[in-house]
Amino acid sequence: MPEEESKIERFIAIDDASENLADQQLDEMVMTLIEKLPPQYKAIVTLYHVQEMSYPEIVEITGLPEGTVKNYLFRARQLLKEKVKKYLGREVEL
Fold this sequence. Notes:
mainly alpha, Arc Repressor Mutant, subunit A, 4 helices
């Protein structure tokens, strides 16, 4: 039994490693796509998702109204979603 458990644990570890690699590749691809966004969208997405800033912090940094920040973030996500779907060739929910 311990030998069987060891094989299962190795299989799970290999599977986890491949999932981690796929996740890392997807993250890198999304970051590349973020770099290609229009500057105003790129800035907002980076501040919100990468820097993990709140809306009030982004408003303070950019000087934009909160509604504009939310709108830019929404539009940027839509653009990214379309680009990721095109890249993967299938429907993806972000």
